[in-house]
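Title: Comparing notes on inverse folding

I've been comparing how different people in this forum approach sequence design from structure. To keep things fair, I'm posting one structure and asking everyone to reply with a full sequence. Here's the target:
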C-alpha cells in the first residue's frame, strides 16, 4: 500500500459521533501539495452539526469541569502516549497533506505529545490562593475555574502543534472545546482527536468540525454558549474574530502574524550566522509565524553574510517531504505560490536585487525555490506584508539605532532575533526590540515550557509556559464570614 493510500479517512467528530464524507454532500478535496494528487474528501459540517457540537460541548462541560484535574491529566497523558505510538502513521499523513519533510512532521507530532503532557500537568497546578481578610474570622479564597466552551481555530502550517496547544489547554483547564482545524490539513487534528477518544474522552468534550472558515467561525461565535475564542492565523482574520468576540465579551487568545527582524552584528562570524539563519528561514518552506524574515546585517560583514546565506539557500534539497533526502518541501497551497510570485516581482520592480531563487520549481505541486533578495526598499510589499514563504530579505545597517528603527517599523511583534556575542549589545537589543520573544544566537524560541505569543498586531495572550492555561480559566473570589 502506498503512503497516499494510507492517508486517514476524513471525518467530522461531533458529540462523540464520527461523520464521514458519504453522510455529508458538501465538502472539499484535500490535495497533496507535493504532487497535486487528491488525498481524500473532507466533509463540511452542516448548521445542524454545528448546533449539535455546541449542544454537546455545553452538556459535556457540566461533567468534565467536575472531573478532578488529576484524572483529566491522566487521560490527556494517555492520549500523548498514543500519539507517540502512532507517530509514523500520523507524521506521514501530516507530511502528505502539508508538505513538510517527514523528519519535521515526526518532530511536530512528538512536540504535540509534549504539549499535551505539559498542559495536562499545568491543569493540576491551576492554583488559587487565600488572601488575608480585613475582618477577623473571614476567609477570602481565590479559585480558578474553567471559563466554559472554547471555539478554537488552528492553521495548516503546524497542524499538530497549534491544534495540540488549543485542545490540551482547554481540556486540562476543564473546558470543553469545538475546534475547526484548517481544511487543508484535516487528518492531523483528527488523529489528535482520535488519540483522545481512544484514551477515553467522554462524548462532547472535544468536537472537530470543518467547513467554509468564516461560516464556521461566525456560526460558533454567534452562540452565547462559547465563552472563549482561540485562534492562530493571519492578523486580518484574527482582528475580525476579536471584533465578533467583543460583542459578547468572549475571552480571546490570538496568535497572529509576524515579520521577524534579525539583527546581525559585526562581532560574529558571518559564515556561522548565515548558516544558522538560512536553516531557520527555510524551515517548513518559510511558512512559520516566527520565521526570520527581515535580516539587517552590519556593514562590515554584510557581503560575507549575504554570500554565505545564498550558498546555504542554493544547497538546500527541495522535494517531496516523504523523500528522506528532502530538506525543504513544497508550499502548502497555491495561494502561497501566487503570493511568492507577486511579492518577488514587486520587490524586484522596486529596485531589490535578486540573488537566487525567485521562481517555481518543477511543474507538479507547489514548490518555490529558496529565494534571497537584498537592498529591498521599505516600500516593497514584502517589507510590510508577512511573506510566509521561502523569501529572505537581507539589508545592510550601520549602527544599532538604525537597526532598532528598522526592526520596530512594522506593527508586528511576535518574534525577533539577533546575532552578537557582545553583552552590551545583548542588553540593548533585549531592551529596544519590540517583540513577544527574542532569540539571541538561537532560533529555537518556541518550547513547550516557555510562554509563546506576540504583542501589537501579532496577537494577545500566551500559549505554553505557566501562562498557557490562564486564557482558559476564570478567577473567582469567595469571601466567607462564618
Ligand atoms: P487565511 O487568513 O485565509 O487563513 C489562515 C487560517 O485561518 C486558516 O487555517 C483558515 O482556515 C483560517 N481562517 C480563515 N478565515 C477564517 C475565518 N473567517 N474564521 C476562522 N478561521 C479562518 O490565510 P491563508 O491564505 O490560509 O494563509 C495566509 C496568511 O495567513 C499567511 O500569510 C500568514 O500571514 C497567515 N497564517 C499565519 C499562521 C500562524 O501561524 N500565525 C498560520 C497560517 C497562516
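Reply #1:
Here's my take.
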Amino acid at each position: 500500500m502506498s503512503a497516499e493510500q494510507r492517508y486517514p479517512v476524513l471525518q467530522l467528530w461531533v458529540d462523540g459521533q464520527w461523520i464521514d464524507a458519504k453522510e455529508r454532500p458538501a465538502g472539499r478535496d484535500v490535495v497533496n501539495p507535493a504532487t497535486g494528487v487528491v488525498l481524500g474528501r473532507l466533509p463540511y459540517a452542516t448548521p445542524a452539526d454545528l448546533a449539535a457540537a455546541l449542544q454537546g460541548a455545553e452538556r459535556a462541560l457540566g461533567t468534565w469541569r467536575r472531573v478532578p484535574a488529576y484524572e483529566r491529566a491522566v487521560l490527556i497523558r494517555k492520549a500523548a502516549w498514543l500519539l507517540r505510538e502512532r507517530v509514523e502513521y500520523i507524521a506521514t499523513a501530516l507530511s502528505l497533506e502539508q508538505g513538510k519533510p517527514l523528519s519535521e512532521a515526526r518532530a511536530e507530532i512528538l512536540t504535540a505529545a509534549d504539549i499535551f503532557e505539559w498542559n495536562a500537568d499545568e491543569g493540576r497546578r491551576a492554583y488559587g490562593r487565600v488572601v488575608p481578610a480585613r475582618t477577623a474570622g473571614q476567609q477570602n479564597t481565590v479559585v480558578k475555574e474553567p471559563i466554559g466552551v472554547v471555539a478554537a481555530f488552528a492553521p495548516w502550517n503546524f497542524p499538530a502543534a497549534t491544534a495540540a496547544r488549543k485542545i490540551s489547554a482547554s481540556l486540562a483547564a476543564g473546558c470543553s472545546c469545538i475546534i475547526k482545524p484548517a481544511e487543508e490539513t484535516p487528518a492531523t487534528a483528527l488523529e489528535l482527536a482520535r488519540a483522545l477518544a481512544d484514551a477515553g474522552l467522554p462524548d462532547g468534550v472535544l468536537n472537530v468540525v470543518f467547513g467554509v472558515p468564516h461560516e464556521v467561525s461566525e456560526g460558533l461565535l454567534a452562540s452565547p454558549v462559547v465563552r472563549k475564542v482561540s485562534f492562530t492565523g493571519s492578523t486580518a482574520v484574527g482582528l475580525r474574530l476579536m471584533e465578533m468576540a467583543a460583542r459578547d465579551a468572549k475571552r480571546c487568545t490570538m496568535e497572529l502574524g509576524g515579520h521577524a527582524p534579525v539583527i546581525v552584528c559585526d562581532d560574529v562570524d558571518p559564515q556561522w550566522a548565515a548558516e544558522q539563519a538560512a536553516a531557520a528561514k527555510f524551515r517548513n518552506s518559510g511558512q512559520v509565524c516566527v520565521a526570520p524574515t527581515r535580516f539587517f546585517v552590519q556593514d562590515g560583514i554584510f557581503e560575507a553574510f549575504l554570500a554565505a546565506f545564498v550558498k546555504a539557500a542554493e544547497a538546500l534539497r527541495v522535494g517531496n517531504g516523504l523523500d528522506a533526502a528532502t530538506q525543504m518541501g513544497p508550499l502548502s497551497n497555491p495561494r502561497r505560490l501566487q503570493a511568492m510570485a507577486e511579492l518577488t516581482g514587486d520587490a524586484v520592480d522596486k529596485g531589490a536585487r535578486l540573488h537566487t531563487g525567485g521562481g517555481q520549481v518543477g511543474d507538479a505541486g507547489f514548490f518555490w525555490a529558496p529565494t534571497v533578495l537584498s537592498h529591498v526598499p521599505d516600500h516593497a510589499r514584502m517589507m510590510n506584508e508577512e511573506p510566509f514563504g521561502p523569501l529572505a530579505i537581507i539589508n545592510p545597517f550601520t549602527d544599532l539605532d538604525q537597526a532598532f528603527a528598522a526592526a520596530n517599523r512594522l506593527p508586528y511583534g511576535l518574534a525577533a532575533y539577533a546575532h552578537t556575542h557582545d553583552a552590551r549589545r545583548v542588553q540593548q537589543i533585549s531592551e529596544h526590540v519590540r517583540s513577544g520573544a527574542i532569540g539571541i544566537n538561537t532560533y529555537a524560541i518556541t518550547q513547550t515550557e516557555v510562554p509563546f505569543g506576540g504583542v501589537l498586531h501579532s496577537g494577545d495572550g500566551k500559549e505554553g509556559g505557566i501562562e498557557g492555561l490562564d486564557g482558559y480559566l476564570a478567577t473567582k473570589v469567595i469571601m466567607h464570614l462564618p
